Amino acid sequence: MIYTVTLNPAVDYYIGLEDFQEGGLNQAKSAYTLSGGKGINVSKVLKNFGEESINLGFVGGFTGDYIKNNLKSEGIQENFVNIEDMTRINLKIKTLSNESEIAGKSPNISSEKYKEFLNKIKDIKSGDMLVLSGSIPGSLPQNIYEQIISELPQGVKIILDTRGETLKKVLKEGVFLVKPNNHELEDFFGEKYTTDEEIIEAGKKLLKLGSENVLVSLGKDGSILITKDGVYRGNVPNGKLISSVGAGDSMVAGIIYGISTGKTIEESYRYGIASGSSTAFSQGLTDFESMKKLLNEIEIKKI
């Protein structure tokens, strides 16, 4: 089974504007809501690809009900802990020239609810995959990812998509894959990288720190996969960028899909690129057919 953890989910409220006037009245041209959170996005893409997963995390209030009902309507399993505080609302504003986001305030999560969550983690078995991604609410222990891993049996494949101190702490526990972008990689090591060689060298440091594989996304410049067996450079297929929201999560889902269907990490990388690109070229998260159409455009070179 594939499990995704979203500790700080949200209802994402998308607003389309021609332009944003600070201090004035802005009239939305379009608006819609989606259940959001990195792990939730991964589960949604996996469902679109025919792969089942179980969502873990915390939800509360009418916004928490919205998330649960949304997942249920899409046939996605969840085993969330219900809390008293309301799940946050994130505001995502897209104009003709820019994208902006206002992240909502995280809910308070009690120690009792945290213990309830850790009990759910014990359902994960050897051979399962676990996605740990996104931010950690301030009311939870900031070493929660380490605590989650300590509850797991040997043989669970852990995919980590987080940043900063959290990434540093969890790496030493040993993970299957980490997926920083180039800016997160620079922040992690406190350096500036201008060449592929510098990025690859930094990625190899993450291997030494405890990750079996490192995937560095470079936006419009593609991505680089670093494994113990080699380094691979992937392109970006042709297409018009509509929204970058969820593209990174879709990339993770594509790789998980490849692994779960028996592909190697190098073969799965192709699905990851196609999935992330397809979401970037779509209004919302990619479906299987859209992803599949891009596969032949993906070029991966060993360097």
Helix and strand topology:
Layout: E1 2-6, E2 10-16, E3 30-36, H1 38-48, E4 53-60, H2 61-73, E5 77-78, E6 81-83, E7 88-94, E8 99-102, H3 111-121, E9 129-133, H4 144-150, E10 157-161, H5 164-171, E11 175-178, H6 182-189, H7 196-209, E12 211-217, E13 223-227, E14 230-234, H8 247-260, H9 265-280, H10 288-294, E15 300-302
Parallel strand pairs: 1-4, 1-9, 2-7, 4-5, 4-6, 9-10, 10-11, 11-12
Antiparallel strand pairs: 2-3, 7-8, 12-13, 13-14, 14-15
Helix pairs in contact: 1-8, 8-9, 9-10
Provide the low-confidence segments as ranges. Answer: none
Please work out how many helical segments DSSP would assign. Answer: 10
User: What is the residue-averaged pLDDT?
Assistant: 93
Q: What separation lies between the terminal Cα atoms?
A: 34 Å
Radius of gyration: 19 Å
Strand content: 25-35%
Profile the largest sheet.
11 strands, mixed
